[in-house]
Amino acid sequence: MVTIKDISERCGVSRATVSKALNGHTDIGADTIVQIRRVAKEMGYLPNATARALKLGRSHNIGVLFVDQTACGLRHEYFSSILDSLKVEAERRGYDITFISKDIGEFSMDYYEHTKYRNCDGVVIASVDFSDPAVLKLISSEIPTVTLDFVFDNRTSVLSDNIGGMSALVHYIYEMGHRRIAFIHGEDTSVTQKRLISFHKTCASLGIRIPEYYVKPAVYHDPKTSGLATRDLLALSDRPTCILYPDDFSFIGGMNELERQGVSIPDDMSVAGYDGILLSQVLRPRLTTYRQGAEEMGREAATKLVELIEQPKTCLPQQIMVSGQLLKGDTIKNIND
Predict the structure, then answer these.
(1) Do the strands 215-217 and 181-185 form a parallel or antiparallel pair, or are they unpaired?
(2) Helical spans, DSSP H, in the chain
(3) Which end of the chain lies in a sparser environment, N or C, as judged by fewer CB atoms within 10 Å?
(4) Is the dihedral of CA 138, 140, 143, 149 positive or negative?
(5) Which pLDDT value is given to residue 169?
């Protein structure tokens, strides 16, 4: 195994100089840094992670808490985009990623204990039941955390602009002449609450009255429940002219139900999704939706967590709002006279 001593002998410099060059110090010459790093690469040098952790007091390992209730795991395109971006940014900053769970083999432990067991410097909480006592224990601990789409006092959060996104969708649908707008929403979460509030508030500001039976509950990323809710809406004597879905993937259930009943999109029924995943843009007709800034959310989460880890005395907790983009597809019919 190649050591710092081997590199120092090859380059004719001290071990301290080699260490500085390999660890990003700038108090030695740029040419010396380039030479040492080139020689280290040629010799096949790999840093000793254990020694580095002991020296710096950090493992350079970030935990990710991701519990997907729909059991889609990393096939969930929206969250996989966030996590991939987070991983890329974390690695760029010199950190590895470890997924945090409650149980390891035969050992039962909570999220906090697993984080300590894996010696994580901090944790990004991407999707979870935020009322879970095990989650609250982790967030209230000494371990730096960044949450996605959920706000805790005195903790950094990265948030998608769900209020602005829903408002943009409703305004566009209104501009296309629709007044009978139904909303199939996801389960009761902070994200759902924001979208519901924005939906009702925007409709009210536009003078649109929304009957209670136009608002239907479903489950995120679940075509079955969205399909059933679509069936209920189609059975109404005053059926809506446009239906908003919880997310783009859930829309598949609505699309199947509309097709089953011979309802054409958008001629007979206009529809819109949410998230802006790739699927929405390859469907025909192309789905009107709101693309969330998943990649930016992942980058921001990694950036802010590393700042909390490396600058604990100067980094203030904050809430970062990430805006998205309205994608005007082909599923909203213009019914203006």
Answers:
(1) parallel
(2) 4-11, 15-22, 30-43, 49-56, 77-92, 111-117, 133-139, 162-175, 190-205, 223-234, 251-260, 278-282, 294-310
(3) C
(4) positive
(5) 97
Nearest to 97, CA basis, from 77, 122, 72:
122
What does the pLDDT average to over 80-85? 89
The predicted model gives 226-248 an average pLDDT of 97
Please say if the pLDDT value at position 50 is more than 50. Answer: no
- C-alpha closest to that of 47 among 65, 23, 73, 81: 23
Q: How many CB atoms sit inside 10 A of residue 202's CB?
A: 20
Q: What is the DSSP string of 74-109?
A: GG-HHHHHHHHHHHHHHHHTT-EEEE--SEETTEE-
Please report the domains of the chain, with CATH numbers, ordered by start residue.
1-42 (1.10.260.40), 61-160+295-319 (3.40.50.2300), 162-292 (3.40.50.2300)
d(CA 62, CA 95): 6
Q: For residue range 247-280, what is the model confidence (pLDDT) as tens digits?
A: 999 999 999 999 999 999 999 999 999 999 888 8
The answer to whether residues 18 and 8 touch, using CB atoms and an 8 Å cutoff, is: yes
Burial class (CB in 10 A: 0-12, 13-18, 19+), 322: buried
Average pLDDT, whole number, for the chain? Answer: 89
Specify the DSSP class assigned to residue 217. E
CA separation for the pair 75, 78 (Å, rounded): 9
Instruction: Report the sign of the C-alpha dihedral through residues 66, 68, 71, 74, in that order.
Output: negative
Residues forming beta bridges with residue 263, ordered by sequence position: none
What count of other Cβ atoms lies within 10 Å of the Cβ of residue 212?
Answer: 6
Q: Is the pLDDT of residue 49 over 60?
A: no
Instruction: For residue 137, give Cα distances in angstroms to 133, 141, 143.
Output: 6, 6, 10
